[in-house]
Fold:
Amino acid sequence: MAGAFVAVADDASATWWNPAGLATARNAVDFSAEVSEGGRGGVALAFPSLGLSYYRNKISKIQPSGSIASVGSSRQDNGAVGSSVFGLSLGQSFTRHLVVSTTVKLVNAQGDTRPDLDIGAMAAFGVLRFGVTVRDVRSPTFGSGADAIELERRARAGAAAIAPGRGALNGLTIAVDADLNSAQVGGRDEQEIAGGVETWWFGRRIGVRGGGGTNTAAGGGSFGAFGVTIVPYPGLNLDGAVTRGSDSARDQWSVSVRLAY
Structure:
């Protein structure tokens, strides 16, 4: 849904989007594995209020800590280098409406390993849900000198309406997300606003979703996404998605498999 997922986060990918979503997951056990264009991807295993995850991202998705003028050479020299993230997500319900959770992470990049932290919260009132997450709270730096890179702290909020559907429509989700601060991603400033819609059909055997958004930071552009889920057997989800944008760095595809019980 073009990234409008902070207030939804109802599967194992909540370990990335918003760990507080684990407490509102639909299933007792949820496992997902994803492969994305450019050597990115990950696996996640989730239980109610508990998650284990591993994600790998390209180094070009992380801000070089030097000046903007050095970004080009840094990305060219380190384009094949990635960051590996191991996470443990834990949540706590404060009331029947509010959950707060955190993901404690070990991040490896440039030969260095640093501890880091994500924090998330989720509030639910009937069909309405509200979420907020802060990623990379410690803003760790990896390497040194001209090759040093930094993970910038990034805050994001979202709202969603999740309805069970009626008649042939078996489920409907409408969501919107917005970054609360600007951060450098891949050598460019990024602050997104995104919205998306997800629908389920044929007894929740087929899910169709799409969305769009824009980067409101200087030099930003628009982007859109489309995805389909096929459920050949109960508990087995096969997902595919594609994103395209005015900035070619947005263009990517992903495929994933999800097992839920």
